Amino acid sequence: MAERKSTFKGDLKSERAVNEFLQKYLYSYLVDDGIIDSFNSNTTLDQQHKGIDTIMYIINDETEEAARCINIDEKAAIHYARNNLGDKPLSTFAFEVSYLKDGELKRGWLTNEKYKETHAYFLCWLWIKSDADKYNLV
Questions:
Q1: Share of the chain above pLDDT 70, in %
Q2: Based on the number of CB atoms within 10 Å of its own CB, is 44 exposed (0-12), middle (13-18) or buried (19 or more)?
């Protein structure tokens, strides 16, 4: 059976589902355990276009807020999600250095100046329920 192609809207919905999962099962635990001060995943459209999905605030009361924040770009291998915990995870993750669009070479997200405010990348390998649509996760 051929692999179904992704859609932009479906990709965005799936990325949002991954972010909501991380908020509930990772970031909130980091706050509760005193590892970070707080986090904000309600980033603005401008921040999202700069590759900022979540902002973590480290614990340090004597530092300005701007110096305490870590801008995180969450990268999930949604199209390679596994649905059996026995399956092997991906052994690598592709960092988009450049790509061709309409015959023109474009800079990828890793090297694009547009994303210079990103401080860290959170790479996610996913296992999903066998009946889940990886192109439309909820």
A1: 90
A2: exposed
Check: CB of residue 126 under 8 Å from CB of residue 77: yes
Q: Please give the helix or strand (H or E) that residue 74 lies within, else none.
A: strand 69-76
Q: Is-contact 114 105, C-beta < 8 A?
A: no
Over residues 8-29, the pLDDT tens digits come to 666 778 888 999 999 999 999 9
Is the separation of the CB atoms in 68 and 116 below 8 Å?
A: no
Tokens linked to 31: 């706050």
b/e sequence 3-30, b meaning 16+ C-beta within 10 Å: eeeeeeebbeebbebbbeebeeeebeee
Average per-residue pLDDT for the chain: 85
- Per the rule left: phi > 0, alpha: psi between -120 and 50, beta: everything else, 103 is left
Question: Which residue, 59, 62, 58, is CA-closest to 119?
Answer: 58
Q: 104-107 and 98-101: which strand pairing?
A: antiparallel
Average pLDDT over residues 48-71: 85
Q: Are 95 and 51 in contact (CB under 8 A)?
A: no
